[in-house]
Specification:
The protein is α+β, with helices and mostly antiparallel strands. It is about 30% helix and about 35% strand. The chain is globular.
Length: about 160
């Protein structure tokens, strides 16, 4: 049986050190609403997107220019039966020099097709990793979820509640 964990990769011209720096700039490629430190071993940080997804990570491996592992301590989805599907999984970034290029390999260990969120989650990871993270590495600008959008929606909900 082949490995069923979600994985994707890409190769670029930047150095392993530049790639490592971009990966650890989670606010630059995933979400500006990240809370906590994302760039040192043992650090914990929280991700949230509206009322749809909340997640807490701990950096359990941190090898400059080579590897980062984010362990999912807690998770909540509002769109699947098992709200904690990611809990206990690992998000792994492996960086390898390939000639004059650098390969970035992303694997979400534990995100498998049996998960209800697999289709949505693998599509989203694909956009963030091969789109936003790759752009952050190659151009210096990713497309993270903006904090303004989250704040605006929260304010709109608050205004809707007041007008009822």
């Amino acid at each position: 049986m082949s490995d069923q964990n979600y994985t994707t990769s890409f190769t670029i011209g930047q150095s392993p050190e530049e790639v490592f720096s971009a990966i650890n700039n989670v606010r630059g490629w995933w979400s500006q609403a990240i809370e906590g430190s994302t760039d040192k071993f043992g650090a914990e940080f929280k991700y949230h997107y509206q009322d749809v997804h909340r997640c807490t990570f701990k950096i359990t491996e941190f090898v400059p220019g080579k590897k980062v592992v984010l362990h999912v301590l807690d998770n909540y989805f509002n769109f699947v039966k098992d709200k904690s599907e990611w809990k206990g999984t690992d998000v792994v970034f492996e960086i390898a020099k390939k000639g004059d290029k650098t390969e970035v390999r992303f694997t979400h260990v534990g995100l498998v097709p049996a998960y209800e969120c697999y289709g949505i989650c693998s599509d989203a990871w694909g956009l963030y990793i091969t789109g936003s993270l790759r752009d952050l590495i190659t151009t210096g600008k990713g497309q993270p979820n903006p904090i303004e959008e989250i704040v605006t929606r929260a304010r709109q909900k608050s205004g809707e509640a007041e007008s009822e």
